[in-house]
Design a protein that fits this description.
- There is one protein chain.
- This protein is of the alpha/beta class.
- The protein is 39% helix and 18% strand.
- The protein folds into two domains: 3-116 and 226-346, 3-Layer(aba) Sandwich (D-Maltodextrin-Binding Protein, domain 2), CATH 3.40.190.10; 123-221, D-Maltodextrin-Binding Protein, domain 2, CATH 3.40.190.10.
- Strands 1-5-4-6-13-7 form a six-stranded mixed sheet, sandwiched between helices.
- Helix 7 links the parallel strand 9 (146-149) and strand 10 (175-178).
- The chain is globular, with a radius of gyration of 20 Å.
Length: 347
Amino acid sequence: MKKVGLAGLSVLIGATSLMAGVGTAFGAVKTTAAKPIVVGTTPLVSSTPLFLAEGLGYWKKLGLNVQLQTFSAAGTIDVATAANSLDVSATGITAGLFNLWNSGKKEYIVADKGRIWPGQHFEALVVSNKAWNAGVRSIKALKGKRFGNTSTGSTFDYLLGSMLEKNGLTIKDIQDVPLTQLKNMTSAVETGQVDATILPQPAANQALASGKVHLLAWVDNQVKADLLVIAFSPQFVQQKADAVKFLEGYVEAVRYYTQHVYRNHNMKDPYLKKALSIIAHYTGTTPAEIPSELIYVNPNGYVDPANIQNQLNFYTKNQFVSGNVSVTQMVNESFLQQAIAALKKAK
């Protein structure tokens, strides 16, 4: 997979057809007569169902030529998908996603890719040693403190805001400090440049083990959220046969993930070992590190529209999103329903 940053976005938009030769986990996929389905994602363990669908050959057996294209910045994936330069996006639900829709640049949410779920310890709310020593030892104590974020209106704002509201505060009670990248957030909290931040795995465990931060709360035990989703571009929703087949392969991978990977601690299990090998290839993460980074995915890939509506309400209330956005129109489960029916029929 080729990694694309902000500077490369214009090249991607102008030359999507050149991606047909991008490699996959077990050798290069030969360009076929079939038009490639180009998927924008990040090289993180949270994209495991996509990596498994490709690495286990689920899409290939359906006759699809799927190209996974990695980006260093998740926000650019949504921009490219809404512009039809990518067929599929695999990113987080942010204010930016809703604002794109409101501006007429639409992409359609079709499946779940990962949820904040009780007990999994996927994301940690941490504070710097400086803040901890100054008495910041509860969520309520974050009032007026500096919070390290990727960008205003990110998923981190929603997660923190939800926890603050449970404690009688709002997101406006903290100072949001946009730092663009996770590594900057980690560095800032470890050095005390910000008082707190939310770190996903493996950054969470690494920071906690360093002794440079203190755990305030595991986000997963505080909030339930549809954090990550699969979305289709305006053009790809018109390619109904391929769109359904794409989700057939994706759901097969999700089911493999649910049965053999997520919360499977038997490192001798051949199904798990195979999956860890595929994930490690795509992410550069060692097999031993991967289990702590796995995130819950609905076993059939369904999203929770009510939760997505809650997130939209939060972003709108806090003026991260303006205009009239309809979650009912954004979420299209028809492709997933047809894919599940096709899988059932094929048994």
